[in-house]
C-alpha cells in the first residue's frame, strides 16, 4: 500500500502553461503594432501583477496578463453598462477598453485586449522613453510607481528575458556567519524602534551580495544604518542592506544587479557621523519592504533568507 502511494506520479512540469513564454509573445505582438518596446509593457504588467498580489481590494489575475482596469475605467465613467464589450460604445463613453485581438469585442477578461488597451493609452503620449514616462505619470499620478516601472523596464531590457526569479544568500555560504529570527524585537542594531529586519553576523569584510535581480535604488551613508544600499527587485520588493564596511568598486545608483553579485562588505558602520564604525559587532542588517502602489511596509525577511540559503546550498550540491 505504502509502495503504491510512493509511486503516485508527481505533477509534470511540461503540462503547466509556460506563462513567461505566453507573456513574452503577447508583449512582442503589441510591440510590433505599437512600437512600444516590449520591456516597458513587461514592466507595467509585472508592476500591476505585484500590486494585485499584495492587495485585497483588487481581484486576482486569472489570465497571463496582470494589468487591471476597474470596470468604469474600461467601459467609461458614464457608461450605463459597466460590462460593455462593444468597442464603439466604449469609445463613445471615453473608456480605455479596446478590441486588441480583432474578435469584435473589447473584453477586460481578454489578455490581448487588456495589454493593447494600456499600450493604446500610452500611444497618445508617444513611444520614446520620456513620453512613455509622462504617460505613466498621468496614469498613476505617483512618482514612486513610475520609478519602479522604469526600473523594471531597464532590468528586463538588460537581461532580455522575463524569468528573473532566482536568488542568492547575501553572504557566501562558505563564510562563517550566523543569524536568527529577531523580527519585531524591541532592540537591534538597525536603528529603528522595532527591529525591522534580520541581522546576519559575519566577519568584517565578508562579501555582501545582491540576493535578487534588481536595480540599485539608493546608496550612501545614514546616521543609523552607516554605509547602506537599497535594491528594488522585479517584484516590487525593496531590499535594504546596512552597516556595510564599504561598497564594491564603481557601484552606482541605477546599476542593475543579479543574484550573487558582490555589492559591498560586512561591517559595523553607523550610529554616528560619516565614518563612524565599531560601536557593535560586524553584521549585515537585512530588511525587506513591499510596495503595493499606495504605500510601502516592512515585512520579515527571515523566511526568505532561510529559503535562499537552502536553494543555494541545493544548487551548489548539484554542481559538485
Ligand atoms: Zn539589524
Automatic annotation (TrEMBL):
Coiled-coil region(s): none
Residues covered by the M23ase beta-sheet core domain: 194-292
A GO term, aspect molecular function: metalloendopeptidase activity
Record field: transmembrane: none
Family matches, as InterPro entries: Cell_wall_metabolism_enzyme, Dup_hybrid_motif, M23ase_b-sheet_dom
Keywords for this protein: Signal
PANTHER family listed in its UniProt record: L-ALA--D-GLU ENDOPEPTIDASE, PEPTIDASE-RELATED
Protein name: Peptidase M23
Source organism (scientific name): Bacillus canaveralius
Lineage, uppermost ranks: Bacteria, Bacillati, Bacillota, Bacilli, Bacillales
Amino acid at each position: 500500500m505504502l509502495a503504491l502511494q510512493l509511486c503516485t506520479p508527481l505533477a509534470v512540469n511540461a503540462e503547466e502553461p509556460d506563462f513567461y513564454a505566453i507573456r513574452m509573445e503577447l508583449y512582442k505582438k503589441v510591440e510590433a503594432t505599437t512600437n512600444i518596446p516590449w520591456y516597458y509593457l513587461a514592466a507595467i504588467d509585472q508592476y500591476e501583477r505585484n500590486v494585485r498580489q499584495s492587495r485585497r481590494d483588487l481581484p486576482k489575475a486569472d489570465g497571463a496578463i496582470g494589468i487591471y482596469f476597474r470596470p468604469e475605467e474600461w467601459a467609461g465613467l458614464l457608461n450605463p453598462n459597466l460590462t460593455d464589450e462593444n468597442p464603439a460604445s466604449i469609445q463613445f463613453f471615453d473608456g480605455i477598453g479596446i478590441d486588441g485581438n480583432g474578435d469584435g469585442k473589447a473584453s477586460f477578461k481578454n489578455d490581448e485586449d487588456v495589454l493593447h488597451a494600456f499600450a493604446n493609452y500610452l500611444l497618445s503620449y508617444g513611444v520614446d522613453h520620456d513620453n512613455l514616462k509622462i504617460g505613466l505619470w498621468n496614469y498613476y499620478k505617483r512618482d514612486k510607481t513610475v520609478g519602479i516601472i522604469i526600473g523594471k523596464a531597464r532590468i528586463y531590457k538588460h537581461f532580455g528575458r522575463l524569468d528573473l526569479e532566482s536568488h542568492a544568500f547575501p553572504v557566501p555560504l562558505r563564510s562563517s556567519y550566523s543569524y536568527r529570527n529577531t523580527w519585531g524585537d524591541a532592540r537591534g542594531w538597525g536603528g529603528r524602534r522595532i527591529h525591522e529586519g534580520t541581522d546576519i553576523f559575519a566577519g568584517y569584510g565578508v562579501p555582501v551580495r545582491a540576493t535578487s535581480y534588481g536595480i540599485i535604488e539608493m546608496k550612501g551613508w545614514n546616521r543609523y544604518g552607516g554605509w547602506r544600499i537599497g535594491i528594488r527587485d522585479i517584484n516590487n520588493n525593496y531590499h535594504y542592506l546596512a552597516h556595510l564596511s564599504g561598497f564594491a568598486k564603481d557601484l552606482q545608483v541605477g546599476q542593475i544587479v543579479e543574484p550573487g553579485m558582490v555589492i559591498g562588505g560586512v561591517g559595523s558602520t553607523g550610529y554616528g557621523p560619516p565614518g563612524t564604525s565599531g560601536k557593535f559587532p560586524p553584521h549585515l542588517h537585512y530588511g525587506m519592504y513591499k510596495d503595493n502602489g499606495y504605500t510601502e511596509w516592512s515585512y520579515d525577511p527571515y523566511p526568505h533568507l532561510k529559503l535562499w540559503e537552502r536553494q543555494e546550498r541545493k544548487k551548489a550540491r548539484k554542481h559538485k
